[in-house]
Specification:
By secondary structure, this protein is mainly β. The chain is 13% helix and 54% strand.
Length: 239
């Protein structure tokens, strides 16, 4: 009987110690930095664009995203947390010898091949979204996240704030400068005003590599080929 009592007391002692350790571990991460500020720089790509368009997209197309997020560690497992927030996401797709008439009244978005026509030296399409990102995060050492392996998967939904094209420095068909004119057109007519994307991040400390793949199409049905935005790049996080 004494042995059973001693075993029971030992078990209760171990259980209490384990519970206390988990409590301290959870409390120690409540005030961590937790990647509340997330800044991303990306290389942007149109997936599914027809060759007639893709061949005119420059490889240096790029984007920038910034989010402010809350991070909520799981009480039973502080290495895991759920994060959500709000931010701005931008994408700049640069074209060579091509123009987009986003203010056109036609049923389809005109992509204008300008290989043998006057064209802009620099020409881009910019889209800007207000986004709500949600992440399921894993931090190997949550009590010292600045020096820890990290990974996250998530989803984000956004609403289109604006879309515009911008052309600088017109050239003639032979590549000679015409003037320093700048043209800018704004219109959301051809674009899906809601964006849904899947996301993933992996890295160490304040630096992670990230990817974002749009689930729905950039353009409304029927106005252009089904095209999705892929962003890959680096994330700087902290605070």
């Amino acid at each position: 009987m004494k042995k059973l009592v001693l075993i029971a007391l030992a078990f209760l002692s171990i259980t209490a110690a384990s519970a206390q350790k988990k409590k301290k571990s959870y409390e120690s991460v409540l005030n961590r930095a937790g990647d509340h500020l997330v800044v991303q720089l990306s290389s942007d790509h149109w997936m599914g664009a027809p060759d007639s368009v893709a061949s005119h997209i420059k490889s240096l197309s790029r984007g920038a995203n910034i989010y402010f997020m809350l991070d909520k560690p799981f009480k039973g497992n502080p290495t895991m947390s759920l994060a959500f927030g709000l931010g701005i996401a931008t994408s700049n797709i640069y074209f060579k010898n091509m123009g987009l008439d986003i203010k056109s009244t036609t049923a389809k978005l005109p992509f204008i091949n300008q290989d043998n026509l006057d064209h802009f030296k620099k020409y881009k399409l910019n889209t800007t979204f207000l986004e709500l990102p949600v992440e399921l995060r894993y931090t190997l050492h949550p009590e010292n996240e600045a020096k820890s392996f990290k990974a996250a998967i998530g989803i984000k939904v956004g609403t289109l704030l604006g879309a515009h094209t911008k052309g600088k420095s017109p050239l003639d068909k032979n590549g000679a400068s015409i003037n320093s004119y700048i043209a800018k057109e704004n219109s959301k007519r051809f674009f899906n005003t809601t964006r849904l994307a899947a996301t993933a991040r992996i890295g160490y400390g304040h630096y992670t590599l990230f990817g974002s793949y749009q689930i729905n199409n950039i353009f409304k049905d029927g106005v252009a080929a089904p095209t999705k935005l892929l962003q890959v790049g680096i994330t700087l996080s902290g605070l």
